[in-house]
Each structure stands twice: as structure tokens, then as C-alpha cells.
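Sample pair:
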Amino acid sequence: MSPESKKLFNIIILGFSFMFIFTAFQTCGNIAQTVITNLNNTDFHGSGYTSMSIIYGVFSASNLISPSVVAIVGPQLSMVVSGVFYSLYIAVFIQPATWAFYTASVFIGIAAAVLWTAQGNCLTVNSDENTIGRNSGVFWALLQSSLFFGNLYIYFAWQGKTHISESDRRTVFIALTVISLVGTVLFFLIRKQEDTKAPGEEDSANEILGDSLSAQNKMTRAVAAFKKSIELSFTKEILLLSVTTAYTGLELTFFSGVYGTCIGAVNRFGSEEKSLIGLSGIFIGVGEILGGGLFGLLSKNSRFGRNPVVMLGIVVHFIAFYLIFFNMPNDAPIAPMEGTNAIAYMIPSKEVAILCSFLLGLGDSCFNTQLLSILGFLYSEDSAPAFAIFKFVQSICAAVAFFYSNYFLLQWQLLIMVVVGFFGTITFFTVEWEAAAALAARSSDYSSI
């Protein structure tokens, strides 16, 4: 197998591994609050929103040390161990206990930081400036296929149900735990890249994969990775991209946890309100897959920069927010177990609700594929610290959003996303223009030799 084929194989395996793990985790997140609402008349007194707030809060803090962990352990083993913790979190729902639920939330927050830092490193190691856009799109499309499969099952299994029984819950979460473990095992198929470099040639992103480093060497590398993360945090490009990343954290919270809860709380949807949560997740996934595949293909043509894709993303999201504002009752995110009979500015429409799910997924793929692409391009030599900062900002904003989702009415949640999204788009444009100018200058230098 040629080096390029080997790299593409690694990207595909990486995508499939994440697809299985997040088929389980994202489906879990999408239905968690609904399942927990049906448990709260028992001895269980947890909150899905609070759990997610803990996860993303710990996730954000753990990103400070995750580059060092990946430097010591290596990206492959880091992803395997992290995948095990994802599986344990999902397994808690088979027989929920409040203490286990919140404890698992802490551990998965740490695991998530390590997993995504290792993923960013693996993506960058297996890409160059000509393939980073394609590979980001391929990975994102495979990852977001996870939203399709798990939610398809929820749609059919919960059709016509207004209450989720103990048997329904156990069946779903046993299946999701097994699926997560399958994705974890797939990480072992990723092949190392040490042999793709010429003898004596070094690459800082590639060196992290070595297994033969001495303990002292690994500790030195860990400290260097931590210092590099701090240094990069204060660069102009990272500070500007942090606004865009903050927006992706807020809208991630909304489409992965809040919007499904809103749909499940609308009594006017009748007996389909619970199965519509699954259908909503499916169409979010369709939007994500379409966006990831389409923008991966477009990236091959240099005439299409990253800015038009991000512009499409913010326009699509603003349309979705407008429709949701008109379609969903204002108290839907914080409605009690009985749901809400309120209406917004129109009688709640299932068709509009599902259209908005698709638009949320499509817009999210626009932002995330381009952020992955520009980070891989700008920081090809420092991929682990750069992706750790990306996930730090995204996760801390997601944690804040999950926290205020317990209290804020729908209109205020939408307003926050509109404001942050607007400024995040402007800051991304600024960084992309500078990156394009640097690339043009580099090409000009090469052509003059």
C-alpha cells in the first residue's frame, strides 16, 4: 500500500471508529433528558442538562493536559482508552444511579479531551495542505453518519410511545454500549506513519506516534506540548478563531441536547412527539453528512475558499433559528414531564421542526469542516496543542450553554447564538483572508525559484 493510500485508509478507519462511538454517544445525548424525565419519579434524580454541563466543563479543563497525555501515551492508545470511558458512560443508563451518572460524566469529560486531541493529531499526521480539506470532509461525513443510525432506531422503536418503559430504556442502552465498544476496537486498525518519512527527516506532529521514546523523552515532550498549548492560546489567529469555535460550542449544545428535548415536550405533536426526537436526529445527521461530503469535494478546487462555506453555514443557521422561534413554544426547553400545550407564533408543525433539524446539521458541518481544515493548515507542525485549544473553547462554551439551558426560555437561547454566530463568522473571515494571503505568498516564492 502506497503512503498516500495508507493515510487515506487511516482517515477512513478514524471516521468509522468515531461513527460507531458517536452513534452511541450522540443518540444517548439526544434522548438522555427525555429518558431521565421518565425516571424522575423514581430514586434517580439526575438531570441530562446538568450531566452535559459537567461533561463539557471537565472537557474544557482537561484540554490543558490532553496534549501532554497524547504525547506520552500516543494517539492510538489514547483513543482506545477514551472509547472505553464513552462506553461506560452509556452503560450507566442501563441501570441508572445518580452518583454513577455524575461520576461517569466527570470521567467522560476527561476522556473526551484526550480523544479529540488525539483525533486532531491523527487527522493532521495523515494529511498535507493539499489533502487536509478533503480529509476533514471525509472524516466529518463519516462521524456525523452516527446521527443517522442511532436516531433511526429510536424513531421506529419509540413510535407511538408517550412514556419510555424500563424495558425500552435497557434495550436501547445495551445496544448503544455494544456499538460504542465496536468503534473503540476499530482504533487498533489505524496504522502508524513512522515509515512515511525519509531517513533523518523529522516532523513534530509525526514524532508523537513513536513507541520507542524513553520515559524521560516522553515527559520532555509532554511538558513541551503543554507549553506550546499556552503559547498558541495567545496568538492572534487562535484568539480570532476562538470566537467562531465558541459559536460551534453553543450550537452543538442546542442541536445535540436542547432541540430534541423541545420537540419531545410539544404535546401538540401528539403520540409522535417521542419518536420525532429520533427523526429530528436523523435529519440533523443527513445535514451533517451532506455538508461533510460536499465540502470535502469542493475543497479540491482552490477557487472555493473556506469563507463561502462558513457564510453558507451562518445563513442556514439563521434561517433555522428564525423558523424555530416561530414554530416552537418558548417554554419547550424547560417544560415539565407532562410537556407543554403552549404555542409560539404558529401552530407547531412537525414538517417545519424536521426541516430545522436538517438546517441545523448542515450549518454545523459548514463551520466544523472549515475549522478542522484551517487548523490543520495553519498548525500542521503543532496539531495536538492547536486542536486541544479548539476543543477547550468549544467545550467550555457548550458547558455554559448546557447550564443555562436549565433556566433560559427558547427565545434567549436563540438570541445568544445569533449574536455569537455573527461575530464568529467575521473573525473566521479575517483569519481565512490572512491564511489565503500567506498561501499565495508561499506559492509566489516557490514559483520564483
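Residues 1-190 form a domain with the Growth Hormone; Chain: A; fold (CATH 1.20.1250.20).
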